[in-house]
Design brief:
Helix content is about 45%, strand content about 15%. The protein has about 290 residues and is α/β, with parallel strands linked by helices. Bound molecules: ligand NPW, adenosine-5'-diphosphate and magnesium ion. The site of ligand NPW has 20 residues, from helix 2, helix 6, helix 7 and helix 9.
């Protein structure tokens, strides 16, 4: 298992080209947030916007429209039960994030099926939270796309069949290769299983053990894979690293880290990365 280092941030977060517009930095469509779990998709959307995606649309329950806009006017809203609109938004996306707060009832299942029917192999498809649980319980086929699963250990147990105490590198690798997808197995020292390597995140803090922390990571992965779409594999690694690097910084002065604080800190943190030259170390950034 290879340890991730801050080099991944320097590799991925480079200065934006001058001759650019919002379309240069990709479109993210996020689908989730039922009547009870609106916060999950709002946190994921905030993360995608703050990570620098060019255009972000959130397909969610109608009741989340005003809360979304009051928190995040940069995001557009769509009703996730409008199949035609969701199909169009999914087809238009560089990256699709599906699952945060989607829920597991019949309506959630129909929405998931509609999303999966409309992805294509050119897109990054981040499958998180309820979408993983639904896939496992309802035996739903993996959709087209560059698939990135972001399960916690219980979600990975549901998807892979490997019990939490038995999730060894070898077993996880076999399950990941069968899926033919990237797996971000979230925990203390998250592991990332890619097509040719297994990475471990050596940073992160229990101050991150707060609801919404994974929703926020899913949004950053969506944002980074859209924005840095010429290197999507590295973008996933950088997203995982930046999420915990910012959390550690905040945890120096806070007992817990609120997920939205990570998102709000992203633009300034990324500015510091952009300025770094190879012979400088991120540790100097205090
Ligand atoms: N503000 C919002 O709207 C929020 C909405 N959210 C949304 O809710 C949806 C459901 O997601 P979920 O993760 O809350 O529930 P589920 O998939 O049933 O897993 C929990 C079960 O697994 C067990 N467990 C064992 N190991 C574990 C581990 N390492 N990490 C985590 N759990 C572990 C755990 O054990 P226990 O804690 O009971 O001991 C429990 O039995 C999803 O769409 C998500 O996006 C949340 O993001 C919160 C904020
Ligand atoms: N003790 C810990 N140390 C480091 N990271 C943690 C710790 N506890 C939780 N996390 C991180 O918080 C996130 C939790 O994800 P998840 O359980 O999906 O949250 P939610 O669904 O509530 O948003 C993951 O990124 C995980 O790595
Ligand atoms: Mg989660």
């Amino acid at each position: 298992m290879e340890k991730l280092t801050d080099q991944i941030l320097k590799d991925v977060i480079t200065p934006r080209p001058q001759n650019s517009f919002k379309g240069t930095f990709g479109k993210v469509t996020l689908v989730g947030g039922n009547h009870n779990f609106g916060g999950a998709i709002i946190m994921a959307s905030m993360a995608a916007v703050c990570a620098g995606a060019g255009l972000v649309t959130t397909a969610t329950d109608k009741s989340n429209s005003s809360p979304l806009h009051s928190q995040l006017p940069e995001a557009m809203f769509a009703d996730f039960t409008n199949d035609k609109q969701v199909a169009d938004l999914v087809q238009a996306a560089t990256s699709v994030v599906v699952g945060p707060g989607l829920g597991d009832d019949e309506s959630s299942l129909q929405i998931l099926k509609n999303v999966f029917a409309n992805t294509n192999d050119q897109q990054n498809v981040i499958i998180d939270g309820s979408a993983i649980t639904l896939m496992a319980h309802e035996n739903i086929d993996q959709p087209h796309g560059n698939i990135i699963y972001t399960p916690h250990e219980m979600e990975w147990q549901r998807l892979s069949g490997i019990k939490i105490g038995e999730q060894t590198e070898d077993k996880n690798k076999i399950a990941q290769q069968k899926l033919g997808a990237t797996v971000v197995l979230k925990k203390h020292h998250t592991e990332i299983y890619t097509s040719n390597q297994v990475y471990q995140l050596p940073i992160g803090t229990p101050a991150q053990a707060v609801g919404g922390m994974g929703d926020t990571l899913a949004g950053i992965v969506g944002g980074f894979t859209a924005e840095f779409n010429d290197k999507p594999a590295e973008a996933v690694l950088a997203a995982v690293y930046v999420h915990s690097a910012i959390a550690e910084k905040i945890a120096e002065s806070q007992y817990i880290v609120l997920p939205h604080q990570i998102s709000r800190a992203l633009p300034a943190f990324m500015k510091k990365m952009e300025k770094l030259e190879d012979d400088h170390h991120i540790g100097f950034l205090n």
